[in-house]
Fold each of these.
Amino acid sequence: MPVITPAPYWRAPTQPVAVPTAAAAAAPSASPLTLQLPPRDYESAGGERCADGAHVVLIPVIPMGSIIMRGLMPLSVLNSTRPALHGARVSYLGWTGPRNLTLAQRLDRHFAQFGAPSACVLLKYADDDALSACRRRGALVLLDCIDNFRCFGVSRAAHEYPKYDALLVQTAAHQRWLAGKGVRSAVLPHPHGDHRRVRHAHPLRARLRGVGLVYGDPKNLPLRHELVAICRACAAVNATFYLVYSPSSSTLKAPQPYHCEGHGGVPPAPPPPPPWPSGGAGGGHDGWCRRQRRAPPPVPSCDASASSSAEERAAYLGSLFAANLSDVSGQHRFYENDEKKGIDRLRAHVDVGLLWPPLGRKDPKLAIENRPPTRMHWWWAQSIPVVAFPMHSYVEAAARIGYPPGLVNLSTADQIAPALCSISSRAARGCLQRAVMRGADLASPLHAALELLTAVCAVADAVGRPLARPAAGEDQWMTRALIKG
């Protein structure tokens, strides 16, 4: 049964929201419109062969930043791992050529050069001209919503989206909503951008001393009074709250401590957090934690063999295509040090990542509740555990790796301090670190790119139309020219 938590801040207090348990979040839906992609260990299975011989075309309708990670990055990964892990051809509609061409004309030129499509994946935005161009050639057509709030429009769900064979969405909650409107979809969570196949855990400090919140745009920050409440919750357990700025056009900035006081117009300090709601004797690293005398939620079992076997698989894959797999899309700068050592500074100050709703956004409420788990996956790629507000994508991502559901069910700021106490020990954070490192593999660019092929095949099966295997055109390799247009 779902756990009923206090309402999100953007709802009225009389409108509670149901947050699924880990089991419920991972449970398949009975609707034929909710396509279930089976959990796959692509590395051990030798990749994904269902689309071998097919031509998948990625189509950006509008040149925006989000198309890099859902278009250019999969292109780079898939064309660098063929034929080692799959036999599909993948191409991307670039912005090269005459500037006065319509989208339909650009697609005609693209298909003439690279071959007829087996499946078209429109990135973020629907477009009737692209839909028609792909349909005329007998291709499946999918719309990858990414974070487009329009995918929650009732009118579009009734009149526009049924034209597509399926939508790709970020959460099972969104998928169920679409099924209720008669729209077929598959869940394909947004990956992080770290291409490394061997991950190394950074050393853990003896006690939890820093909590970080990463953002790329101020509109994705919590509101100011929430930042103050979060800061005070961290201070209650003698931890510093840091804001970590990660601009899309530059490298990661050094964590900046957030000062709880000195901000005008904020409410008075909240009362002390209540005890953690379970019995037993607890313990913590500071006075506040010790005074709670309550047991923390469980942490996942430590399985060292899972981590080592993952490294062995990654090393094997690296021997197959390490020379080809590259970061032409430019994502490594968010995961590796530059001359300012931003990643080293992050790990020197931050022990736990915090994920909280971006209440400054103007998007519809349903779209905010179902935003992608990109930031959670980013923390995982840094081998840093997290605590989180129960956004649907965070609850579902946690369920996929067996992460403690209590740590992603913090619906108010006063629940942060007890959660931090529960993972204050190095042993607890060590268990969580191993879990998130496994999660980082499941949210990697390689896994997400192969899962895209799985989704295309699942849609073909659902609509009863086998993927065409057209005559091959030119191979398209990822270059900086595709980004610059």
Amino acid sequence: MRNKDSDPIETNEWLEAINSVIEEEGVDRASYLLTKIAERLNQEGAIPSYNLTTPFKNTISVKEEAPMPGDLFMERKIRSLIRWNALVMVLRANMNDDELGGHIATFSSAATLYDVGFNYFFRGSNNQLEDMIYYQGQSSPGIYARSFLEGYLNEEDLDNFRREVTKPGLSSYPHPWLMPEYWQFPVVSMGLGPILGIYQAHVMRYLSSRGLVPRNDRKVWVFCGDGEMDEPESKGAIGLAGREKLENLIFVINCNLQRLDGPVRGNGKIIQELEGSFRGEGWNVIKVVWGRFWDPIMAKDSEGKLQDLMDVVVDGELQNFKAKGGAYTRENFFAKDPSVLEMVKDLSDDDIYKLNRGGHDPYKVYAAYHKAVNSEGAPTVILALTTKGYGTGSREADNTTHQVKKLSMDNIKSFRDKFNIPVPDSEIEKLPYVRPPEDSPEIQYLKKTREALGGFIPRRRTSSDPLSIASDKPFEKLLESSGDRKISTTMAIVRIITDLLKDPEIGKRIVPIVPDEARTFGMEALFRQVGIYSSAGQKYEPEDADKVMWYKESKDGVMLEEGITEAGAFSAWTALATAYSNYDFPMVPFYLFYSMFGFQRVHDLSWAAGDAQAKGFLIGATSGRTTLNGEGLQHQDGHSHILSSTIPNCLSYDPTYAYEVATIVKDGIKKMYIDQENYFYYITTINENYTHPEMPKDCEEGIIKGMYVLSDNESYDVRLLGSGAILREALKAKDILFKFKIKAQVWSVTSFNLLRKDGMEIERYNQLNPSGKQKLTYVEECFSDSNVPVIAATDYMRSYAEQIRPYIHSSYTTLGTDGYGRSDSRQTLRDFFEVDSKSIARAAIYALYKNDKIDKNQIENYYKELGIDSNKPNPWEI
């Protein structure tokens, strides 16, 4: 509660003094003085009652606005045509019963925000690296409409909006996978654009600090909606941007005050809320609330009464003011104070309705963008007040406007009239696209503005120069036996990364990434070898400075240790994994993480990485439900390969031996960076130490395809398939079965997922070519006989190994770790989940019994000798 003013005269003297500073030296000087005063109060233990929010008005005063240099009227004509063509494209897509959908309201509210950027600020890629723009996904019709005026798209393209199969046409939202030469970033899963944009700016500075790709004054623009900011990913990383002082980052938040169903903050003020959040994290905040038609009214507000009304009105009412018109606004806003009502006495109701919002005023938006691109030392967020469905007649600011895909003819005509579209009544029902002739002033103006900024956007670079490796040395040692030395596959992958960093050709492009726990993965040697990147360097002496592997941070550090944020670390990986496209400089990122906290934690981002055609390595370290044995239910991964299988261009492997890891990584570098195929790799590694054999002869092809024979016999009774940590249990089971005079052949399955993909491809080919020579799947080629039972055991759910059942023509049994994980010894856990050698042997014996290869007495004796408990509860039920 504020103290009563005990000395109003003194208060006025202070106010006069600060007013004098503002007038003579500017706001920045006044702000500096107040900051010093606040610091003095803090020394006495007082807490100044400053707010993180400013009054609900434009941050930039009229006298401080940078003047917009272009032709306002020409730009309005062009913008109106873009609005019309975007609208018509969606309406035409929904003239039949195909129910293709599309969005009108979002771009209608954001058209000016984009238009000013395209005309003055967004740089293309001619003779420079282009600005990176994360468009608000639902605004895609407007971006297509601009490309139509530019001549990149034609009417047929627009008519194929959301028809992505038969043509293919224009994708519903920004999807690089579907339009690889156009869209750069997949953003429409709300919340992903903001976090990916922040880490893109972070990686841009990282690459520049290392001297690889100078950032110069290149910008990352992120367009998003106010409702979208409720997603945890939207604001979860804004603290990083503030700490890192990412002045190359600009957020533009389209505050049209509405979500899909209703107001974002009907009882509050979303712009004020966001201002406090961003300013508190160290961002520059620029509010663009009111358009220039408000300026003469606000100039009359000498006593601040209009501002008082603006500060207290809630967003639900602001929505009403646009939905219900000028008379409603006069009565329910201005009339709340007689002196404020007097300010608008000369305005008609229609004049009041036309009082524009800041996000629809190109002058105000230009001033905000100009200040943002010229700001230093902090990221900038622009909070622009707009109206959802702007210009759509009776649907403007309607609670259902987000879902609008069709408009009445009256509303279409209203839209045409509002934006002066040259379509007569006789033609309007045909919903024609409008593009002036190539030599028209509009098209020439449009093209010249883009030429001055470096060319047309969006455009995406689809390839870059192939990479090379100086030698196979980083892999060769791991092809040999480890002898008596016991290592884990996690140690093997770290060794590969360490040696690749030393390669004179590719070394500078290798980037190890961890959220935290590099020591857990045995990566601490890299602290000193290559350093941890920090934009601030290292302003302290680390506690372990006297140790060999001390915690070294530096501005040119190579390793990215992003803190305990899997979403953030993955976003950094994605930025580096798409550097071949966005920087024309391929990077090879290795992101190591607890496999349980990979796809399960950030699958939406993983899916977007696939869409973006990312290239790099994801390492699910400490994987396996029974292998990360001490951590328990929340940490033990038994399903990440099932999740990875949902991403079409993710190649996933579960290797057992170091030579398998080396072979897979080597193949990955070749496929992604030499052959330039659009894949990324997911490789699970484990923290269990054991000896590793020498690489067998002629197994490389099988390792890559997903399976190869490891222990062969001239004759055998059963096949055992093992994967990852459980392959060694299959080898033990082979020895157990041998005691019962049962011969087993053992196969190492490095990827059930790839075996399934191969099976689906061959199966489809055969169906489409029934009269031609039928092909065999790789599994069928390996298992040519159909009378040998097959047992598959993995450290993952049974559904992982079940994927190849259609391609096995003998009896097939799968064992896996279905159920919740828990903490105990590895052997105890494997016995509990029934994937240990005894359980594998049991399954093999039972399969032979069902195939009449052994009799009832034999199986009872074998079970007794194995100690099989028939009353043991199901592990997935307890």
Amino acid sequence: MNNCPKCGKAVKYDDNFCKYCGASLGEKTASTEVASASPDDVIKNVIIKRLDGIKNKDEKTVRSIIDAGRYSKFDDWPPYGRQDVDTALKNEFGAFQVLSNYNYDFTNFKVDVIGDVAIATFQLHYTGEMSRRPFEVNSRITTILLKQDAEWKIIHEHYSRWGEEQRGDAGQQQRRRRRWGSFPLVSCSPKTINLIKPEP
């Protein structure tokens, strides 16, 4: 028995993916992994790669798993409108410049595969610091993927915060948007939002 390098749980020597967290195991070829793993495992690994791209602030990885011709996103922080690929990546990579100590875990993961389209839904908890100011967020995620030449690419992501941070009227949200600006994929609850106030 071996241990998964991501979650540390025991896995079989010939496993391609960790059955607990979906992480890729060993130095196996991509074709072997795809052939051996279930579609759910392959898609879960894409999601993990996506989130690790944020954690490691790896622009190349993020670009490699999205379909640049189709990608769009609804974020869980302003701007709340649908962002095309150029706007979404500009906002996200801009946030990388001041993001640190990003960590995440997700639960309630589910995949529905309909032909060459897959819909992954899960609940995401993530923490970190923006300009050394701490944040903690719970969000509900829907990710749509398209299979292209035996490879799954992300074409849409929808982030929706839930819990205490949802409270507040539209006027309050608009004031926050003007005051704090946009921090894609990295947001704050009312308990911590005062901590990211820019220095005068």
Amino acid sequence: MADRRAAAEQLDNLVATSDEVARSAAWVSKWGKSSKQANGTGKGVKPARQTWSGALRKNWRLYSLLALPTLYFIVFRYLPMAGNVIAFRKFRPGGSIFGEYWVGFQYIDMFIHDPAFWNVFKNTITLGVLTLVFSFPMPIIFALLLNELRAKKFKKIVQSISYLPHFMSVVIVAGMIFQLTSLQGTVNQLIGHFGGGAISFMQQAAWFRPVYVSSDVWQTMGWGAILYLAALTTIDENLYEAARIDGANRRQQTWHITLPGIAPMIMTLLVLNIGSFMAVGFEKILLLYNPLTYPTADVISTYLYRVGIVSNNFSYATAIGLFESVIGLALVMSANAISRRLVGTSLW
């Protein structure tokens, strides 16, 4: 009898406990529904949209950091676009900044039928292609080589040395090139050591492009590798471990894991480089070239400098610059579309 009485008491306790749990669950459910409705997240109730003014008041400190960069782009990038109108108007120094009178496509017709323009256009395309072919992949290769190094101290030393050329002034780089390639320079001394004759590199048009491209590779390789080294750190190490277990060597790991891992970064930078394809380094070319190397060294930017600034033919130079900008826009939009279709990565 005592056992039956104890069992009945335990059953009554369990029933009372279950009733309390049911009441608590019902109260929590009711409270949750009411809180969702109050917050505008319940079923059938749309959440309140945050307006621009509300976001600005809430995060005004963050938005204030955009003030100076926005002002810079407005003043130095967007407002000058209004000056493109003088490509279709006659401009005289001292007159209206928007030209004196309308001339239509006169200046565009002039450069289309100007043999000198098409020569500099060909040089611009050639130097742009050579720079893209040699200067763009070298930071990728350099980053992959650095990634294989296991001695951290040696790796840091190599990285620091490779970054230095990027911080050198273009004037210093041009001076170094003249010193190295002069008749008594280091390059000619090495050529003479192997029995060759001295070469006047900077006075021969055929040598300008190799000198320019090689100096560009030397100056940009180390700094350009920074982004790829950062992208390499995001690759999961477990992928390499699984590949090693499957018997993959270092070359196979690089081809099937490393390169696909940094492919989005490669495509993004490729699109950006193609966008500046026509803007070949104006400062360095202006410092390195001379009338003897015009046949291969003269590009659109230096031609615009001579025609527009030196000769005061601003309308003609603006028409050529507008043509160059349209080509650059078409190139970057095409490259972005191709990148989005092939690898799913794009700038917009």
